[in-house]
Amino acid sequence: MMAAMPRAPPAALLLATALAAVLVLAQAQAEKLVAVGSFLYAGGLPASHIAEWDGSAWTTANGGVHTLGDGSAYTAVDAVAVLGNNKVVAAGAFNQADGVSAANTAQWDGQAWSALGAGVDGPVYGLVTYAAAGTTYVAVQGAFQAAGGAPADGLAQWDGTAWSALPATVNGAISTSVQHSVDGGASFRLYVGGSFTQIGAVNASGLAQWDGAAWAAVGGGVSASSGYRLVAALTLDGADLYVGGQFSKDIDGAVTLNIAVYHTDTDAWSPLGAGMGTFGSVYALLVHNGDLYVGGIFDAAGGVAAANVAKWDGRAWTALGAGVGGADSGGVLSLAVFRNAVVAAGSFATAGGAPANNIAQWDGTAWAALGGGIGTAEGGGADGSNTVYGLAVYTPAAVATPPPPFNRWDAWAITVAVIVLVFALIGVVATGMFIYRKVRRSGDGDDDEKKPLNLSVQYP
């Protein structure tokens, strides 16, 4: 019998790889980075407090948000969060979203705005989306007394249909929050941080948790630093809750300042090296590729010189190049990951020493501006009226519109995908020729001497 012949090139695998590459590229192309704040321009074009970056250019969210009826009223989007992957919720101080009546909260799906019911009757400062019992909630905190027309003392949630008050009165501001799934996803904890010392009937010094039924303190909370207590940023990495702001925390007899990590599984705290120093405030935290990125207003992290942004790798602090800054810099207020780069936003004029209007990205080696950035029609710079308060990354629902223009990196990725596809097609042709030749050879000679062709699957 003929020996088992070597397996032909795995053409199906090559085809699958090529298709996967194309799908991944398409997904990346569809992603949008959303920036919100007090600005009126993005990339030199009008953008009323919200704008989108597609990797190449800035676009508006239609007419953005406005406050009608009072020309002197403060208008801004102070917070943004992703809802269901293909929508974003914006909250702040406004009563219109592209002509739609929207009381301080609204959602954007990439094409149109819609209200969250009757909204809330005062400005919103904090926003988070979380899931519980199969329902996705939008929880907001601010200076309001009613949500959906019903009493709500500054703390409420939207379940997609109706508003309800969260059962608590807070004696200070809630400035940040993050959800943590526990028990294999069967339950959750919503961690909140701020300047409060009491939430509901619970004494909670700047840090608390909500389990869907009751509030509780977290790890003894934090203490005041320089006369002020504020938890301004939270992020989770597994069971580790990173806490940033302006505070002090006594950990095993040693005081750490403005940043620490709380281990939710052991109810214990740990410092992050030497912390941020007495005058270093933290306003943004982000875990990416196993490292913790920190943004705020500081000139050093753990004793290492760092201009308003730094990285903690679990052992040591490092600067991100020359960082961000410039005259009248208000530092970094938000961080996000967009197409594998870390995006920093806030109020600054330079990144890596080069002009960057209030937003820039770090690719692990160097800083780059995002087009003309966020600012005035002329470009702006570090200016309180052009501040970016929040960032979010989402993928709008598919629509029949032309794709955004490709940048050079997109073109490179497409070239790679096409090359993979070409090799896959070559593999298909080679497979056919390989089998054809074997069949022809097996057919040579007398019929009674023909032997069966062994097509057993074996690798060489």
Write the layout of secondary structure elements.
Elements: H1 11-30, E1 32-37, E2 41-42, E3 45-46, E4 50-53, E5 58-60, E6 65-66, E7 76-83, E8 87-93, E9 96-97, E10 100-101, E11 105-108, E12 113-115, E13 124-132, E14 135-142, E15 146-147, E16 150-151, E17 155-158, E18 163-165, E19 174-182, E20 187-194, E21 198-199, E22 202-203, E23 207-210, E24 215-217, E25 230-237, E26 240-251, E27 254-263, E28 268-270, E29 281-288, E30 291-297, E31 300-301, E32 304-305, E33 309-312, E34 317-319, E35 324-325, E36 331-338, E37 341-347, E38 350-351, E39 354-355, E40 359-362, E41 367-369, E42 388-394, H2 408-442
Antiparallel strand pairs: 1-4, 1-42, 2-3, 4-5, 6-9, 7-8, 8-11, 9-10, 11-12, 13-14, 14-17, 15-16, 17-18, 19-20, 20-23, 21-22, 23-24, 25-26, 26-27, 27-28, 29-30, 30-33, 31-32, 33-34, 35-38, 36-37, 37-40, 38-39, 40-41
